[in-house]
Write a structure and sequence with these properties.
The chain is globular. The C terminus is likely disordered. The protein is α+β, with helices and mostly antiparallel strands and 138 residues long. The protein has one domain: TT1751-like domain (TATA-Binding Protein, 2-Layer Sandwich), CATH 3.30.310.70. The chain is 43% helix and 30% strand. It has 5 helices and 6 strands; from the N terminus they run βαβαβαββααβ.
């Protein structure tokens, strides 16, 4: 995938979410949105799917720089992270590649933020892969 990178963990989704939240905090990122796709499918379609969450991670200082450089580039925010159950004790995480996504703006200042944000997201991934990682794909 040119727009994301993924990792898998030998643990349940809730434990993986706890570790992700801590790694994000350690890198000065916060969750600004949390879409529980499993709950939406259940409520709207009466369908059961395994746990699947789409989180929006943000560093306010980086977001401010993107919006100041190009207000419309705010449509590329926040950085999405998918957390999903692959098997009962196997969780997958897919991280949006902000460098690839922010590159869509074709604005040097926005691209610079994308590179910086990718380094931060990779640091989050690296914090997590030191714990219980079974597979990493770029």
């Amino acid at each position: 995938m040119m727009y994301a990178f993924s990792v898998e963990f030998q643990m349940p989704v809730e434990k993986a979410l706890e570790q992700l939240n801590q790694a994000l905090k350690d890198e000065k990122l916060g969750i600004v949105s949390d879409v529980d796709v499993q709950a939406i499918m259940r409520a709207k379609l009466q369908e059961e799917i395994p746990p699947y969450r789409i989180l929006g991670a943000c560093a306010p200082g980086l977001a401010k720089r993107v919006i100041e450089a190009e207000p419309e580039a705010g449509a590329l925010l926040p950085c999405s992270i998918i957390v999903r159950q692959i098997k009962p004790d196997l969780t997958g995480m897919t991280f949006m590649d902000p460098e690839a996504i922010f590159g869509l703006a074709e604005n040097g200042a926005v691209a610079d933020v994308g590179r910086e944000a990718r380094e931060i997201i990779e640091a989050v991934r690296d914090r997590l892969t030191g714990q219980h990682s079974v597979n990493l794909t770029a």
